[in-house]
Amino acid sequence: MRGFLVTAVSALAFAVSAGAALADGDPAAGEASFKVCKACHQIGETAKNFVGPVLNGVVGRKSGTYPGYNYSDANKNSGLTWDEATLTKYLHNPRGVVPGTKMVFPGLQKDEDVANVIAYLKQFGPDGKKI
């Protein structure tokens, strides 16, 4: 019985740690998943507003506030802050979270891709340098 209990606790600990790793995401995998975002967004020290705004420092930033980008009223007035929970919902379904957004991207389907993209974005400070 003791052996079974040790095995069960070990399996549970492994499952919890695997879930935490998924929630944290993998920045390297996120860079690969971010390739679909690059059609409209730039990130890094030389990033400029493009079809979409620069994503430097986006995690923790208030929606609709990157300088020089012409946001939709829906985005400017959403009252959102791009924390991990909000980005998770938004990256799955942008128009569901901000109806009226100009972003035409339908969203990422896989939870793992979303977590990885967020981990990738979190690496970049407002100046575009990796933190």
Commentary on this structure:
The structure is a single chain. This protein is mainly alpha-helical and 131 residues long. It has a single domain, classed as Cytochrome c-like domain (Cytochrome Bc1 Complex, Chain D, domain 2), CATH 1.10.760. Helix content is 45%, strand content 0%. Helix 2 crosses helix 6 and helix 4 crosses helix 6. It is globular, with a radius of gyration of 18 Å.
Secondary structure layout plus pairing:
Layout: H1 2-24, H2 27-33, H3 73-76, H4 84-92, H5 94-97, H6 111-122
Helix pairs in contact: 2-6, 4-6
Notable features of this structure?
single chain, 131 residues, mainly alpha, Cytochrome Bc1 Complex, Chain D, domain 2, disordered N terminus
Quickly give the CATH architecture.
Answer: Orthogonal Bundle
Total separate domains: 1
Largest sheet: none
Specify the structural class.
mainly alpha
Number of strands: 0
Arithmetic mean pLDDT: 87
Element-by-element helix/strand order: HHHHHH
Q: Tell me, what is the CATH class?
A: Mainly Alpha
Fraction of residues in H or I helices: 40-55%
**Superfamily (CATH H level) name:** Cytochrome c-like domain
Fraction of residues in β-strands: under 5%
First-residue to last-residue Cα separation: 48 Å
Could you give a quick summary of the protein structure above?
It contains six helices and no strands. The protein has 131 residues and is an all-alpha fold.
